[in-house]
From TrEMBL:
<dbReference type="GO" id="GO:0006633">
    <property type="term" value="P:fatty acid biosynthetic process"/>
</dbReference>
<dbReference type="InterPro" id="IPR042099">
    <property type="entry name" value="ANL_N_sf"/>
</dbReference>
<dbReference type="Pfam" id="PF00501">
    <property type="entry name" value="AMP-binding"/>
</dbReference>
<keyword id="KW-0596">Phosphopantetheine</keyword>
<dbReference type="Pfam" id="PF00109">
    <property type="entry name" value="ketoacyl-synt"/>
</dbReference>
<keyword id="KW-0597">Phosphoprotein</keyword>
<dbReference type="InterPro" id="IPR009081">
    <property type="entry name" value="PP-bd_ACP"/>
</dbReference>
<dbReference type="InterPro" id="IPR050091">
    <property type="entry name" value="PKS_NRPS_Biosynth_Enz"/>
</dbReference>
<dbReference type="InterPro" id="IPR000873">
    <property type="entry name" value="AMP-dep_synth/lig_dom"/>
</dbReference>
<dbReference type="GO" id="GO:0016874">
    <property type="term" value="F:ligase activity"/>
</dbReference>
<dbReference type="InterPro" id="IPR014031">
    <property type="entry name" value="Ketoacyl_synth_C"/>
</dbReference>
<dbReference type="InterPro" id="IPR032821">
    <property type="entry name" value="PKS_assoc"/>
</dbReference>
<dbReference type="GO" id="GO:0005886">
    <property type="term" value="C:plasma membrane"/>
</dbReference>
<dbReference type="InterPro" id="IPR036736">
    <property type="entry name" value="ACP-like_sf"/>
</dbReference>
<dbReference type="Pfam" id="PF16197">
    <property type="entry name" value="KAsynt_C_assoc"/>
</dbReference>
<dbReference type="Pfam" id="PF00550">
    <property type="entry name" value="PP-binding"/>
</dbReference>
<dbReference type="GO" id="GO:0004312">
    <property type="term" value="F:fatty acid synthase activity"/>
</dbReference>
Length: 1411
């Protein structure tokens, strides 16, 4: 009697200590407090998080969730890719009894993209729950919320969850309470959420732990996504249950460096990990043999292989390769599982060898039986691995379609049951009903049993497995139907496992009855469509006369697969291939190579052009065979490598065929090996030539300032959109529908601030207007106080190319005539004025140059500015550029030139890159000698180490780049910097986003870096800001510079967008570069600094390379002893002042680490002081960091206000002053010592009325008045009353200090009367009266009608106030009344550091030509 194909797992007993996974974490945290998770970054850095710390984070996160209204039993979606943040959030939900539904973040945020469709459908299935997200993606989720398509959409970021410092109580749901929802793949269908309870999960992880023989001594490694059931349950919860240490890689880090994964296993003596078939294949292919000697895998007890069809070929290759590293064949454990079983169903026991079944393909396909292949027939052989025995707690059987258990060696459906098996799908009763038969869950997988071991042989119905991912056939078919070229019902997609290649293949069957020739375009469109939508490759597209279906109309996919595997379509596929070949190859006379060089050339042509060698004649023209610019450069690269010398593009200009190229090369002169340029390196900064960037201001798409731009970069925000309705209206072109990185408010300008009439502003190029405002912001940022009257030897260098406002001017003149133009219209639209207008506005006498090298204009301008500063011909430089596209002309010309992408994205480095997208922006920087910036405690964004500029000379076309020119400019720049390329940590690429430009740029970089021994493993990041904001043409280098400066400032690298699949032509794996695709810490070796290079290449061939280094040395700042500071704010309008106050209040609230002293230092000393003013004394004390006591005022006379001081009877009126013997003011202490000495020397201390307290009081007032005079304010009158007269006379210089003391203490009536004659002046010549302790006396001296014409500042000291606070209070009140001060005296060099503050809030007034 045959043995039945059914296996039973042992019973699982859940420990008393935990019957829920929430109790599990508490148990593990208490038992293993020093064990936990180590998160490994892309650079190999490790960050440890103990289980007890994880529990603490989870409880604090839970507190915030409860505060936001989330309660036990609620469902939340987790879209968090960052592993550390995911686990904190996951456990927070578990501890609160909140049901978790993790799904991957969308890879695209475009409407109707697969990721967003899945999110929306999962969200709908779950009844619109809260979504927990990562903070960097807030903008994208906010966009969804605002779109109107997600009504009721709410989310909380992980940053918000961190806000609570309190831990919340834990909830303990029962064993059968729902805790987890695992969602299937799919984009167009309804996603199915597998329901998992505490019992399901605990049963499975205990069973897996038993089979793994896992203990607390294990060190477990994982790279699998936590949204994957194997990553979540086998690689996280199972080792957590055992108190193991877990080493966590992100999938991105693993894919980028599988060697690092195994190297860390070597270092930490890892004991097990799980991976997919893809993972083992990736490690085998991507880890070079020369690295094997550094790996030791002998510490591994086993590795699990699951989640994908398991390839015997992949296993064999992995075992063979890594056996040299101590890996043994019996370590590999093929496993079978699925989300519906929590994760694990079967796996062989530890230590047993891999078993392989080699069976007859035809009998398996046609008879559903397993038979040994006869006579080792390779063509009929198919191999499957054994996936072992059931885990404890689960039963497995093989059944027919009616639920009857089959015998061993018969193929049927794999069915399971047990406590780890789901009860069904969430909110999907229909799918749940179809899921079970007689209590057994139908897996949809085919398999058989052999000797009580499970073998999985395939999949049933419409489940297709491609690249490690399940797809539903109808999902893929829906995408193809979008072509609108095939009627519904006439497509069937089928999965097929190719036993020869050991790969899953996708077959597309199309009902089609015409000729093969006519079928080929349809075939190509189907292949392209699916690849474009999901990156899925179709192996064969097969035309058939009919799609087989059941009587109920269901497609019989199994029948089509069976026909294919039986070879019924072989002849048809051969005919298709022949037709394709015939179309590609035309009849011609083939001239064979005559020598080895021509043989090499033909072989290279064949490889690059992807055509057979035999079909290439040495007299064929390269471009006639399908060559293009990028392939031409690939050919030049191949020839250069073969000849071991540089070959330029002039070769292909002179030679078209292999024969001509061969003869040209043979006639080339020999190379002088000694002629190569030697790179002189000295990695230290040369202070004599180093230039600092101390000011930065920008206006970029989606960003009005540095912080907004940085936030956009970190959140991967794509700032490209279709032309806005407002821009269409401004341009007068309602039909303009291009994609653009659009700048807001290009029509707005604060003309009154710059004293430009409204009529003139209207006719000015908006680029000039925006450059004026942005240059002011940059100069403020650099502490240059724009608008001072004296001349300054500062140069202005403007990179500028186009003025599209000309088009509107032309239309205006055509409609209204030239008579209505403003006289300055000509200069308002000239390129050179973009520089000259800055010199004019700020009285700069250095050169004012406008430079046009097309796309490299900004960096070309900056290079010339650096040279001028180095030669000491100027003391500093403003470098600026703007690109505003007022009308569509730039788009029209760019499209004609082939520069603009056919899509909305600049896909730099991507294999499908086909051009750029235009963008707008304004960037301004200020440069000065590094030594000067250090001396003045400037905020140094970066040091310019080196720069170079050149031209390509001849290239394949005026718009085509020349790799030789790019290489040379790189070499010259690093020579100028005296820096080894190996010191560089990041390259901001020019990034044309074209199939020709990107490979040439990377090739030139790789050539230089490899020549100077930069290892491929150096991990130098590379990216392009064009992917975020588009190509800013002449200002593009400015955007690149701004990005790198902010990366240096924040010590992070930010992602380049839209790079889905690397362009193979880059050959980036052979370079030290990697494309930065996530926000990452920019780490450097201890003692090193961050350094970056920036490329900028212009149409016409002008190349510039700039090398930057961070400046992180400490400034020479004296320790400030003040406990309080004075903050002043001013503007040219009341509205602007209020905006400035609001900005400052926001800073104080949002930035607890804000340095109050440096803020006041920057505001007071390094800002110009305008008529509308505000001031307040502000404390470093955390509770007093507010502007609560701010005072406002204005003085509109266009000059500094004059001040008169009236000092009252101090001894009578001012007794309640602070305890002066606790005073810490240096000014007071110094003056008290001087006055005490004077009093003692002249015997004043022996007077009857003297006491030490009175002397301190006199010192207080004497110091206050003296400090006010020294502060530089315009005090032209000082008067006193009674005891105050002594102080007034001393301040006026009428008496010396000795006499003043005698008067003060003796109250000598005669002297007081004699000197008090001026106490009632006939006429006040001041604008402000400072009344010190006057009380009612001021009314006696100044009648009300006089006071009404003056600003009265009344000062009465507070018993709680210090001397410094009193002085600053008076200065503040005088300031808002219109008084000016010598801020250099109040804040001398070394007393603070410049910092970046919100820029001046210009008024937004519209000025635009309407025609």
């Amino acid at each position: 009697m045959s043995k039945k194909a059914i296996l039973y797992g042992k019973t699982v007993n859940v420990p008393e200590e935990y019957d829920s996974i929430s109790k599990l974490l508490i148990y593990v945290g208490e038992k293993y407090p020093h064990k936990g998770l180590t998160f490994i970054s892309a650079s190999g850095d490790e960050e440890f998080l103990s289980y007890s710390e994880l529990l603490g984070y989870a409880r604090r996160y839970l507190k915030t969730l409860h505060q936001r209204g989330v309660k036990q039993g609620d469902v939340v979606i987790l879209e968090i890719d960052n592993s550390k943040e995911f686990y904190k959030t996951f456990w927070a939900c578990v501890l609160g009894g909140i049901v978790v539904a993790p799904i991957s973040q969308p890879t695209s945020w475009e409407p109707n993209s697969a990721g967003l469709l899945k999110l929306s459908k999962v969200w709908e299935v779950l009844k619109k729950p809260l979504i927990l997200i990562e903070e960097p993606f807030r903008a994208q989720y906010q966009g969804l919320k605002d779109s109107g398509c997600f009504e009721g959409f709410e989310f909380i970021s992980t940053q918000e969850l961190e806000n609570s410092e309190m831990e919340d109580d834990i909830c303990y749901p029962g064993p059968d309470e729902l805790v987890f929802l695992q969602f299937s793949s799919g984009s167009t269908g309804i996603p199915k959420g597998v329901k998992l309870t505490n019992r399901n999960i605990l049963t499975n992880i205990i069973a897996i732990s038993n089979r793994f023989e896992s203990t607390e001594n294990d060190t477990v490694f994982t790279w699998l996504p936590h949204t994957h059931d194997m990553g979540m349950f086998a690689q996280h919860l199972t080792p957590v249950k055992n108190g193991c240490n877990i080493m966590v890689f992100s999938p991105f880090t693993f894919v980028r460096s599988p060697y690092m994964f195994l190297k860390k296993i070597t270092e930490h003596k890892g004991t097990w990990f799980c991976a997919t078939n893809f993972g083992y294949d990736w490690m085998t292919r991507k880890i070079s043999d020369d690295k094997l000697a550094s790996l030791d895998l002998s510490s591994l007890r086993f590795v699990a292989n699951g989640a994908e069809p398991i390839s015997t070929l992949v296993i064999d290759n992995f075992v063979k390769k890594f056996s040299k590293c101590g890996f043994r064949e019996n370590m590999m454990k093929p496993a079978y599982g699925m989300a519906e079983a929590t994760v694990g169903v079967t796996m062989p026991k530890i230590g047993t060898p891999v078993r392989v079944e080699r069976i007859c393909r035809t009998k398996m396909i046609n008879e559903n039986i397993v038979a040994t292949v006869e006579n080792n027939n390779e063509t009929d052989k198919i191999e499957f691995v054994h996936e072992g025995h059931p885990f404890d707690g689960v039963d497995v059987r093989i059944a027919d379609e009616n639920g009857n258990t089959l015998d061993e060696y018969m193929i049927g459906e794999i069915q399971i049951r047990g406590n780890n098996v789901t009860s069904g799908y969430y909110n999907n009763d229909e799918a749940t009903k179809d899921l079970f038969i007689d209590g057994w869950l139908r897996t949809g997988d085919l398999g058989f049993m052999a000797d009580s071991s499970l073998v999985v042989s395939g999949r049933i119905k419409d489940v297709i497995f491609v690249r490690g991912q399940n797809y539903f056939a109808h999902d893929l078919e829906e995408i193809i139907y979008e072509l609108d070229t095939i009627d519904r019902g006439n497509i069937a997609l089928v999965g097929h496992f190719n036993s020869k290649t050991q790969q899953e293949e996708l077959l597309a069957f199309i009902k089609y009855k015409s000729s093969i020739e006519k079928f080929l375009p349809l075939r190509k469109s189907i292949i392209d469509k699916l690849h474009e939508a999901l990156g899925v490759e179709i192996t064969h597209v097969i035309p058939v006369s009919a799609i087989p279906k059941t009587t109920s109309g269901k497609v019989q996919r199994f029948q089509l697969r069976k026909n294919f595997e039986n070879g019924e379509y072989d002849d048809l596929l051969r005919e298709i291939e022949e037709c394709i070949q015939k179309k590609q190859n035309k009849e011609k006379s083939i001239q064979q190579p005559r020598n080895e060089l021509e043989m090499f050339l033909r072989e290279s042509w064949s490889k690059i052009l992807n055509i057979p060698e035999q079909s290439i004649s040495i007299d064929d023209a390269f471009f006639a065979l399908g060559g293009n610019s990028i392939k031409a450069y690939q050919l030049l690269d191949e020839i250069s490598k073969h000849l071991k010398r540089e070959v330029g593009s002039e070769l292909l200009a002179s030679c078209k065929t292999i024969r001509q190229i061969s003869e040209y090369i043979e006639g080339m002169p020999s190379v002088d090996k000694n002629s190569a340029i030697e790179l002189e390196t000295d990695n230290r900064i040369d202070m004599d030539k180093a230039v600092a960037i101390t000011g930065l201001a920008l206006r970029l798409p989606g960003a009005k300032n540095q912080q907004e731009f940085w936030n956009n970069l970190c959140s991967k925000k794509d700032c490209i959109s279709q032309i806005s309705p407002k821009r269409k209206e401004l341009s007068g072109k309602p039909e303009w529908n291009d994609w653009l990185g659009e700048l807001e408010d290009i029509e707005c300008f604060d003309n009154e601030f710059f004293e430009i009439s409204a009529e003139e502003a209207k006719f000015m190029d908006p680029q000039q207007r925006l450059i004026l405002e942005t240059s002011y912001e940059a100069l403020e940022d650099a502490g240059m106080i724009p608008g001072l009257e004296e001349e300054r030897n500062i140069g202005v260098y403007s990179g500028i190319s186009t003025n599209t406002y000309y088009q509107l001017l032309a239309r205006y003149i055509e409609k209204y005539g030239a008579e209505k133009l403003h006289p300055n219209t000509m200069v308002g639209n000239m390129h050179n004025i973009t520089a000259a207008i800055i010199s004019h506005a700020y009285n700069f006498t250095g050169p004012a140059l406008s430079i046009d090298t097309a796309c490299s204009s900004f960096l070309a301008a900056l290079h010339h500015a650096v040279e001028a500063i180095r030669h000491k011909s100027i003391e500093g430089a403003v470098v600026t550029s703007a690109n505003i596209l007022v009308v569509p002309i730039a788009h029209i010309l760019s499209k004609t030139a082939g520069i603009v992408s056919s899509t909305k994205n600049a896909r730099v480095f991507d294999k499908d890159a086909d051009g750029t997208v235009l963008g707008e922006g304004v960037v301004v920087v200020y440069l000065e000698p590094l030594a000067k910036a250090i001396k003045e405690n400037k905020n140094i964004y970066a040091v310019i180490r080196g720069s170079a500029i050149n031209n390509d000379g001849y290239s394949l076309g005026i718009m085509a780049p020349n790799p030789k020119g790019q290489y040379k400019v790189l070499l010259e720049a690093y020579n100028d910097a005296k820096l080894s390329p190996g010191e560089i940590g990041y390259i901001e690429a020019h990034g044309t986003g074209t199939t020709i430009g990107d490979p040439i740029e990377v090739n030139a970089l790789s050539k230089l870096f490899s020549e100077y021994n930069v290892e491929k493993s150096s991990n130098i990041g590379i990216g392009s800001v064009k992917t975020n904001i588009g190509h800013l043409l002449s200002a593009s280098g400015g955007a690149s510079l701004a990005k790198v400066l902010l990366c240096l400032k924040n010590k992070k690298l930010v992602p380049s967008l839209h790079m889905e699949e690397i362009n193979p032509a880059l050959q980036i794996e052979k370079t030290p570069f990697y494309v930065v695709q996530e926000v990452e810490e920019w780490k450097v070796k201890e003692g090193s600094t961050r350094k970056a290079g920036i490329n900028s290449f212009g149409l016409g061939g002008t190349n510039v390379h700039l090398i930057l280094e961070e400046w992180n040395q400490s400034h020479n700042i004296q320790k400030e002893k003040r406990k309080v500071n004075l903050l002043t704010l001013s503007a040219k309008s009341e509205r602007a002042l209020e905006v400035m106050i609001k900005q400052t209040e926001d800073m104080l609230r949002d930035l607890p680490e804000l340095n109050i002293h440096d803020m006041c230092f920057t505001r007071n000393r390094y800002r110009k002081h305008y008529s509308y003013r505000a001031a307040c004394v502000i404390s470093e004390n955390e509770k007093a960091r507010t502007l609560e006591g701010i005072k406002r005022g204005q003085f509109l006379k266009g000059r500094s206000a004059k001040t008169c001081i009236y000092i009252g009877d101090l001894k009578k009126n001012c007794k309640d002053i602070p305890n002066l013997f606790d005073e810490t003011s240096e000014t007071f202490i110094k003056n008290f010592s001087e006055i005490s000495e004077c009093a003692k020397k002249h015997g004043i201390t022996d007077l009857n009325h003297y006491n030490r307290n009175d002397l301190a009081h006199f010192t207080y007032w004497y110091s206050l008045v003296r400090a006010l005079k020294d502060s530089g304010t315009n005090i032209n009158e000082i008067y006193g009353v009674n005891s105050g007269q002594a102080l007034a006379d001393a301040a006026n210089g009428k008496i010396d200090l000795q006499t003043a003391l005698r008067m003060y203490f003796q109250e000598a009536e005669g002297i007081l009367e004699e000197n008090g004659a001026d106490s009632k002046p006939q006429r006040i010549k001041s604008d402000i009266v400072l009344s010190i302790c006057m009380q009612e006396e001021l009314s006696d001296i100044l009648p009300e009608e006089v006071q009404s014409k003056l600003k009265i500042v009344d000062f009465q000291p507070s018993p709680e106030g210090s001397f410094d606070s009193s002085l600053l209070t008076i200065i503040g009140e005088l300031y808002v009344a219109g008084a000016d001060f010598n801020w250099d005296y109040i804040y001398p060099d070394g007393l603070g550091k410049l910092m970046n503050l919100p820029s001046y809030p210009f008024e937004k007034k519209s000025f635009w030509i309407s025609c």
